[in-house]
TrEMBL record:
This is Tetratricopeptide repeat protein. The keyword Transcription does not apply. It comes from Clostridium estertheticum. TPR repeats lie at residues 41-74, 179-212. InterPro entries: TPR-like_helical_dom_sf (IPR011990), TPR_rpt (IPR019734). It holds the Pfam family TPR_19. The keyword Mitochondrion does not apply. Keywords: TPR repeat.
């Protein structure tokens, strides 16, 4: 039995004792205070999340860190904090915290999320082969959209188009509505020179208004290869409305450069 479960049982017994022997109101107050204490990490996290939404980024990170360090902080909260660190580009701190969590006994879902984040750190450190190895081990053990999505993309980065096509076709059968999975398969066809297949998938994807820039970027490249430069230009300009972070596969600068290149070529 976990320590948290033991504490819950003890708290229940104490509350019952206070309710019966001492005072009912005091028992209810004890329960409320206990619940607040045990959910303190979640409360602090949501305060930080609210500040993040209001673009008070530095303040938000202070709350995220506090939430991470609270006793009995749920693994979900810890992983949220690490993900925000990755968005910010703090690889060293992310990696240190992930290594600490890796040594703990975790649920299958937590194992997946920890290893997914480790693979992201490896990708950003230009160790794509090791990132793929970690994801392949996860893939052999579990099946989920996020595993398919990251593995499919990393195989493309590895230039292993044959394996990428196999995994991305399988992923599309697993979840044909996932934007990342559709994008991976469309990009695979683009890299294989099968532009008509790529175009069909990208047209499907654009109906969903994807929020990540790489979808628009490779859609534009597909359009260019089909001699549609004006449509490609408009697509790239749409990409500029996306939110760019350290984890974005395509940078704003890359898109700006391609826009300038196309504008020059069609004058």
């Amino acid at each position: 039995m976990s320590l948290k479960k033991c504490m819950n049982i003890i708290a229940f017994v104490l509350a019952l004792f206070i309710f019966i022997v001492i005072n009912k109101l005091l028992a209810f107050l004890f329960i409320i205070l206990y619940l607040v204490r045990m959910n303190l990490a979640t409360i602090i996290y949501y305060i930080g999340s609210n500040k993040y939404k209001r673009n008070k980024i530095d303040e938000a990170y202070k709350y995220f860190e506090k939430a991470y360090n609270v006793n009995f902080s749920p693994m979900k909260i810890k992983l949220y904090y690490i993900y925000y660190l990755l968005l910010r580009g703090d690889l060293n701190k992310s990696e240190n915290l992930l290594n600490q969590l890796s040594n703990k006994k975790v649920t299958p879902d937590d194992e997946i999320n920890i290893k997914l984040n480790i693979s992201i750190v490896l990708w950003k450190r230009n160790n794509i082969d090791e990132a793929v190895n970690i994801l392949m081990k996860l893939y052999n053990k579990y099946k989920s959209s996020i595993i398919y999505q990251n593995l499919g993309y990393f195989l493309l980065l590895q230039n292993n188009c044959t394996k990428a096509l196999e995994i991305n076709l399988e992923a599309y059968k697993f979840n044909s509505s996932n934007a990342g999975i559709i994008d991976n398969l469309a990009t695979t066809y683009y890299m294989l020179g099968e532009y008509d297949k790529s175009l069909k998938l990208y047209e499907e994807l654009m109906l969903e208004k994807p929020s990540f820039p790489s979808a628009y970027y490779y859609y534009a490249f597909t359009l260019l290869n089909l001699n549609k430069p004006q449509e490609a230009l408009e697509t790239l300009k749409e990409a500029l409305n996306c939110n760019f972070t350290f984890l974005s596969a395509i940078s704003k600068e890359e898109i700006d450069t391609k826009i300038a290149e196309i504008e020059t070529s069609i004058k």
